[in-house]
Amino acid sequence: MKYLHTMIRVTDPDATIRFFTLLGLKEVRRMESQQGRFTLIFLAAPGEEGIAEVELTHNWDPEDYSGGRNFGHLAYRVDNIYETCQRLMDAGVTINRPPRDGHMAFVRTPDNISIELLQDGHLPPAEPWASMPNTGVW
Q: Interior CA angle at 24 toward 84 and 101, to 5°?
């Protein structure tokens, strides 16, 4: 058995791709189905192509996708959680659970899917993160 990908439904592919690009993922392939009226966009971290991908499914006809947290979450290991969170914050992404401990943070995609960021190893607690409160749910 081999893990292939995780699929999430998205309402705005461009916004979602921008979000995942901020995390460091890149588009590796795309497929459009005129008959099925959907687009599939596959993203992966560098070196993870074909190993652990995220499939963005965009149905062309509007649908209401509520309760993104019901999905669970995607998790990514990062080289520096503080730099990653700062880059996301600078781009307007809310840090729902800041990396107060130097190890873990949560953010959400434009479609409200929860993303867990885990530090590769541990960094010492640092401000402003150490005293930053949670925002919303994660």
A: 25
Q: Cα-flanking dihedrals φ and ψ of residue 23, to 5°?
A: -75, -20
- Annotated catalytic residue, options 27, 49, 55, 116: 116
Residue 79, strand partner residues: none
- What pLDDT tens digit does each residue of the chain (138 aa) get? 577 688 888 989 999 999 999 999 999 999 999 998 999 999 999 999 988 899 999 999 987 766 664 566 888 989 999 999 999 999 999 999 999 999 999 999 998 888 999 999 989 999 999 999 999 987
The amino acid at residue 119 is Q
Whole-angstrom CA distances from 64 to 37, 59, 104, 109, 112 are 16, 11, 30, 15, 12
Answer for the pair 84, 117: CB distance below 8 angstroms, yes or no. yes
Determine whether 49 is an active site residue: no
